Amino acid sequence: MTEESPALYVVPTPLGHLGDMTQRAIEVLRQVPWVAAEDTRHSAPLLRHFGCNARLLPAHRHNEEGAAQQVITRLAAGESVALVVDAGTPAVSDPGARLVARVRAAGHRVIPLPGACAAVVALSAAGLGEAHFLFYGFLPSKAGQRAEALRELAPLPYALVFYEAPHRILEAVAALLVAFGPERTLVLARELTKLFESIHCCALGEAQTWLLADANRQRGEFVLLVSGAAPVEQSAEGERVLQLLLDDGLSIRQASRLAHAITGVGKNVLYQRALALKG
């Protein structure tokens, strides 16, 4: 911090492993007089660990507007403020976006620091081949709204990244299976950077069996990554090949299996399309 004018520093904190805290983040937290924290009880031990003596003010989902006004007041008085959440980067499926917007609208500087983000950490270890990804965050908790959201995402050719809580992991995976079919790849990244970190890759149709085989696999915070839909051109080629095979007298099952081998389009997708063509 060499700047003379006050600023709001957006500071990522470790997902679990304290060694992932950047030196710059530590220096900022040691020098600012105020830290706006999602949960002050959670952040206080972290600040003590790194020798930071800043005063804390709460800035969570339910008081973000009020917290923004407190931060603006501090900045107007010439005092810099750091914004942190319990783990990861503020405003990425965590509180912070509204506070940052209010601070910027009030004419104060916002300085972001790079650091931990569970979505990017999981994506780097997933091994998915898509050139692009779409970060969705948490799916709706209500079944109908979740199904509607997934229907809109199903045709997209991007890797899809979701966050999920342990108590909803089974129903979330079940919803992904219904929306996307059993053959798309699912990566379950759990407890990233923590003691019981695990990253498991499987077909969507196999995921529930894997989760149910060991109750410990359902614990912890999850990042779910789903491979993208086949490109439109590939899907069209799959249907063309499928139609030719059906016209040659192959059964629906044989035609869909062979069309999958030739074009790479999902067998389940081709099977359902073959049923429609024959029907």
Q: Can you walk me through this structure?
A:
This protein has helices at residues 23-31, 40-49, 64-76, 97-105, 118-126, 143-153, 169-180, 204-212, 232-247, 252-263, 267-278; strands at 7-10, 34-37, 55-58, 81-84, 109-112, 133-138, 159-164, 185-190, 198-203, 222-226. Strand 2, helix 2 (40-49) and strand 3 (55-58) form a beta-alpha-beta unit. The longest helix has 16 residues, at 232-247. The chain is of the alpha/beta class and 279 residues long. The radius of gyration is 24 Å and the shape is elongated. The strands form 2 sheets. Strands 3-2-4-1-5 form a 5-stranded parallel β-sheet, with helices on both faces.
